C-alpha cells in the first residue's frame, strides 16, 4: 500500500538519497519526518505532501520508495483562510495519489486531504479552541475556523495523548482514537558511550511565554545556584538566545548568574545538550504531549515537570518515571531540583524508570503498530507494504499541476 503523509515536513531529516544541497525551506516539524521514515523502514511506499514559501511552482522530489510533493504557500495565508494553500495541496494529492492519507494537524493539510475523498486519518497535536483562548488573535481565529471545518467533515481522528482527547467535544471524541507521539529508534543510537554528564541542568522550549513558564524556572535556578554555585543552567530554543526575551527578563530581575542563553540549535545539538545534562527541567504550564521530556527520558536524563501540566504527569508515569512539582512555585521547582541533584540513588532510579517507561509506552515500534492497526480498521483490510521496490527514473522532478482536477 502507498501511504500519503500530509503535514509540515523537515526535508533535511528524511531517509532518502537526494544529492541536492539547496532544498526549499518548508514548514518543518520533526515528528512528521520521523513518521515518514518509520513507514519507509517497514517497506511502505510513501508520498509526503507539504508546502513551502520559497517555490514559484509546485515541486516533486523522488528517491526510492519516497515521493515528496511540495505545494506553494503565499505570504499571510491566514488572511485568505489558507484557501490557496488548501487548493494547491489538493491538486498535488490528486496528481500524485496515495491509497490512504495520514494528515498531521487539523488544519490546511487535513482540509486538503479530506477534499480528495481518499480514506484519511487526521492527527490532533493541539486543540484549536484552547489555543484561541490562550492566544486570542485573528490568526488563531482562522486556525480555529479551519479546525472546525475539518473536524465536522472528518470521519477518523487521532489524539496524540489522553490529555488532548479529554479536551475534545464529546461528539468529536466518538470518532477519535488515542495514539501517543513516539520517539524515533535512531534516538537511542545517538547516545554517546560512555555518557559523561556535564555540571548543568537544561530547559529546551520554544518561546518565552506564559505557557512555557521559563520565568519561574529562572527564579528557581537562582535558589539552587545559591547552594550549588558551580552549577550552570542552559536555556535552549526560540527567545533563549543572547539578547533574547529570556535574557532580558533575567537581566531585569538579577537572574543571569550561571545561566547560558544558547538559543535555537539544530536537533542533534539540542539532544546532545539534553543527554549530557544532569537534569532536564520542563517548567511548562501545559503540554498536549511533551516531546522534549520524552527525549530526555530516552537519553538517560531525569526529568522534572509540572504535576498539572497537561499530559506531563502521564508521560512521567505519575511521578514514577520523573519528578512532578508545582511549576507555579519557584520554591517547589527548586526543591525538586535539589532532590535530584543531591540524591544519587533517586537520580539513578528516575533515570532507569524513565527510560524503561519510554521504551514500553512511546517507542517507534509500539506507536507505528497502533497507527497501522487503526488504518486497517478504517480501510477494512490489513495495511501491508508492497513487496516491490519503487525506483523512479530520475531522482528529481519539478512538475506543475495546472491540469489536475
Automatic annotation (TrEMBL):
Pfam families: Glyco_transf_4, Glycos_transf_1. The keyword Transferase applies. Residues 34-182 form the Glycosyltransferase subfamily 4-like N-terminal domain. GO terms for molecular function: glycosyltransferase activity. Keywords: Transferase. Signal peptide: none annotated. The keyword RNA-binding does not apply. Gene3D superfamilies: Glycogen Phosphorylase B (3.40.50.2000). Residues 197-356 form the Glycosyl transferase family domain. This is Glycosyltransferase involved in cell wall bisynthesis.
Amino acid at each position: 500500500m502507498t501511504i500519503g503523509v500530509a503535514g509540515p515536513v523537515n526535508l533535511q531529516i528524511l531517509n532518502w538519497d537526494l544529492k541536492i544541497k539547496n532544498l526549499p525551506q518548508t514548514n518543518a516539524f520533526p515528528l512528521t519526518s520521523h513518521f515518514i521514515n518509520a513507514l519507509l523502514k517497514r517497506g511502505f511506499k510513501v508520498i509526503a505532501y507539504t508546502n513551502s514559501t520559497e517555490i514559484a511552482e509546485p515541486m516533486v522530489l523522488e528517491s526510492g520508495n519516497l515521493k515528496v510533493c511540495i505545494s506553494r504557500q503565499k505570504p499571510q495565508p491566514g488572511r485568505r483562510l489558507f484557501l490557496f494553500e488548501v487548493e494547491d495541496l489538493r491538486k498535488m494529492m490528486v496528481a500524485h495519489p496515495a491509497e490512504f492519507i495520514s494528515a498531521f494537524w487539523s488544519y490546511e493539510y487535513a482540509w486538503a486531504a479530506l477534499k480528495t475523498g481518499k480514506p484519511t486519518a487526521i492527527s490532533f497535536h493541539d486543540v484549536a479552541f484552547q489555543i484561541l483562548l490562550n492566544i486570542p488573535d485573528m490568526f488563531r481565529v482562522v486556525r480555529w475556523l479551519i479546525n472546525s471545518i475539518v473536524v465536522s467533515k472528518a470521519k477518523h481522528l487521532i489524539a496524540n495523548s489522553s490529555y488532548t482527547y479529554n479536551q475534545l467535544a464529546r461528539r468529536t471524541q466518538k470518532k477519535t482514537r488515542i495514539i501517543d507521539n513516539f520517539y524515533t529508534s535512531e534516538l537511542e543510537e545517538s547516545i554517546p558511550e560512555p555518557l559523561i554528564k556535564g555540571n548543568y541542568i537544561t530547559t529546551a522550549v520554544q518561546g518565552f511565554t506564559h505557557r512555557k513558564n521559563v520565568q519561574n524556572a529562572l527564579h528557581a535556578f537562582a535558589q539552587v545556584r545559591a547552594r550549588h554555585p558551580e552549577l550552570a543552567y542552559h536555556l535552549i530554543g526560540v527567545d533563549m538566545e543572547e539578547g533574547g526575551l529570556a535574557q532580558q527578563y533575567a537581566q531585569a530581575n538579577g537572574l543571569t548568574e550561571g545561566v547560558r542563553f544558547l538559543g535555537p540549535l539544530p536537533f542533534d545539538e539540542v539532544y546532545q545538550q539534553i543527554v549530557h545534562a544532569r537534569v532536564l527541567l520542563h517548567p511548562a504550564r501545559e503540554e498536549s504531549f511533551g516531546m522534549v521530556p520524552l527525549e530526555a527520558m530516552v537519553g538517560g536524563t531525569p526529568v522534572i515537570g509540572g504535576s498539572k501540566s497537561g499530559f506531563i504527569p502521564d508521560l512521567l508515569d505519575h511521578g514514577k518515571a520523573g519528578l512532578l512539582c508545582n511549576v507555579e512555585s519557584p520554591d517547589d521547582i527548586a526543591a525538586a531540583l535539589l532532590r535530584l541533584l543531591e540524591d544519587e540513588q533517586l537520580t539513578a532510579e528516575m533515570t532507569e524508570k524513565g527510560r524503561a517507561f519510554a521504551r514500553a509506552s512511546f517507542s517507534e515500534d509500539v506507536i507505528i503498530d497502533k497507527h497501522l492497526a487503526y488504518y486497517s480498521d478504517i480501510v477494512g483490510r490489513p495495511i501491508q507494504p508492497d513487496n516491490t521496490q519503487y525506483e523512479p527514473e530520475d531522482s528529481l522532478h519539478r512538475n506543475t499541476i495546472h491540469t489536475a482536477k
